[in-house]
Amino acid sequence: MVEMSDKGDKAVGISRDTLEKGAVMRLARQRDGAKSTVLSDEDLRASRRAIIADDYHGDDIWVFGYGSLIWKPEINFTERRDALVHGFHRRFCMWTTIGRGSPDCPGLVLALDNGGSTKGVIFRIAAEQAAKELDILWRREMMADSYRPLWLTAQTDKGPIKALSFAIRRNRPVFAPRMSDEKTAAIIHKAAGFVGPCKDYLFQTQKALIEANIHDKQMAQLCKLVSELENEASVNS
Prior knowledge:
Layout: E1 2-4, E2 10-12, H1 16-21, H2 23-32, H3 41-49, E3 61-65, H4 68-71, E4 79-96, E5 107-125, H5 130-141, E6 147-156, E7 159-168, H6 181-190, H7 198-211, H8 217-236
Helix pairs in contact: 3-5, 6-8, 7-8
């Protein structure tokens, strides 16, 4: 379903259907024209094939989710587990001018950045469905080639598991260096894009983290600051 975002852009909900049909990618390409950095279907498949071949026949694949994948994975999976990874932390370190922002008012979304650790969840994808499901995941995560797909060791209550995840490409213009919580909150409060307001992404992710019994002080602080900006805007309107 196509709606209008807070900033007037056409908003396309992220769903399995819109991912399979490439609706968001088409709108992004149409908006940006020759300047578009959205990958072609051929480039997306080539990127996915570097991780999993079309005729993959190995073990089931696990995917580590740390942000919106927790509450809206849009992939078919057979099992979900709580997990912890070391060496990366969850941070609003990626500029977006597509899903949760615009060229005139970029937003910020989560990615894994170097250092620390992150609690999240892992999803198990049946081996025979791996190529198909990862193609959908690639359309969701790799549209602008801003993430770096990588294999991590996820610690679970049933032992360590090799899992696929996505970290920020620090050498790309989309990388956002660390800034104050107040500045991050102001950006999140203001931005909106094809998928909807950036603040909704923050609040929905925090809700999913709490439901998964994951307590992230940084996320809680950003929610507090954005809520204060919301209240201030309401009073002044």
